[in-house]
Fold this sequence. Notes:
The protein is built from 7 helices and 7 strands, in the order αββαβαβαβαβαβα.
Amino acid sequence: xxxxxxxxxxxxxxxxxxxxxxxxxxxxxxxxxxxxxxxxxxxxxxxxxxxxxxxxxxxxxxxxxxxxxxxxxxxxxxxxxxxxxxxxxxxxxxxxxxxxxxxxxxxxxxxxxxxxxxxxxxxxxxxxxxxxxxxxxxxxxxxxxxxxxxxxxxxxxxxxxxxxxxxxxxxxxxxx
Length: 176
């Protein structure tokens, strides 16, 4: 499947070239990639990380039984996520990570992965109960990092997989 996606990505990159500036539009390439995933790679692979065992179990059940996702793992810490992706090369299409975890926050993990270019095409959803975090503004322009409010009600929790899918579809609508 990855070979097919890379072939499709290569095939469509001509549309990403801006003849005026002489540069390839990174956002255009990202949108082509998302379109290819949505077309050929359904369900999305996902890794969930939360230090709260009850939340982790809820997320496990949600994504384990959702037809648009294949759960690769539910991890308990940012260190586990970093190890899984950077060392073991188990790179998901989607990473759902809690912002506040001991030792290595979700944002720390995302920054470290970005620095190593360990999961450049993975969409990283950082969930937080806090509405505004100063560090959010720094990464707000990165199209692969999405900050969302952590679901707390039963309805919000049940809606989480579809919320993630909607964010991915919004990426597509910007170029369509």
